[in-house]
Specification:
The chain is α/β, with parallel strands linked by helices. 51% of the residues lie in helices and 13% in strands. The longest helix has 24 residues, at 172-195.
Amino acid sequence: MEEDKLINSVHSTVFKESDSLEGKCTKIEGYDFNQGINYSKLLKSMLSTGFQASNLGEAMEIVNEMLDWRLSDETITEDCSEEEKDPSYRESIRCKVFLGFTSNLISSGVRDTIRYLTEHHMVDVIVTTTGGIEEDLIKCLAPTYKGHFSLPGAQLRSRGLNRIGNLLVPNDNYCKFEDWIIPIFDQMLKEQLEENVLWTPSKLIARLGKEINNENSYLYWAYKNKIPVFCPGLTDGSLGDMLYFHSFRSPGLIIDVVQDIRAMNGEAVRASPSKTGIIILGGGLPKHHICNANMMRNGADYAVYINTAQEFDGSDSGARPDEAVSWGKIRGSAKTVKVHCDATIAFPLLVAETFASRWKKMS
């Protein structure tokens, strides 16, 4: 009798009754290749696959919602202006998209994905690091090559080869960059002195996009489509090296960062009545700069992070979207997700199922 009670107790412990999840949660199932190869269906199946595949699927849903949003989806409030009550105006107002990325992604083939987005004006504001500027320009002058993560640094140094992960950049590329950019700095200094031009990092970047005049460059398309590109750490890279050497050769060029912080924050503050959406690849400066600007409007409405950084060291790079909610950088009501994945894998897939699929339909 006692043994029966014990077994029944153990049985009830092991086979505890469950709450029903039917109709409340997504059923986990992957893509059935018996259907043949349908890449759109394969990407859609990510949502129900589990783990980071599901996070990528959520990212696709959030970006599509970001792109679908129109002011006409919102209820007209009493404090709306007459213009904001006009149906055609409300239909024309869409979500303002901020895109941020680190320099390594421009060194990689993701540069071409970003070029596609700027070519077709699919994003509204860009923030990157200095390498994200110079690597785009340098690739117009000379290529980057695939190497290996394990190549010995000392041997590469003796051969004049610079390694970025498993990519190789010949040092000659930077020599070509210097030959190309120094005359542009000379001309900018002349315009500053003779025409009182006030240069800012974003104005300098737009000028470089104009001067490179190459359709493979995302900066060229950003210049052409008037998409502002912000880089608050402009001197932290080869571009900074060029500015350093130019300051000895022809002193006097001034680049005003204060005007750019006004412009960047203004992109968020003046977004209203639009919603704002942020897509951030990697961490560091671009991630914080975009989030901080959106704090000025009480937070972004949509947020997608793609990076491999962890939050346990307290880094902003590793922080999940919810940490930004605590600062008012993302709204508590926002749709958010972090995809823990190398952006060179996840971002092209995300673009395929969001921006690119829409462009194909529109075309």
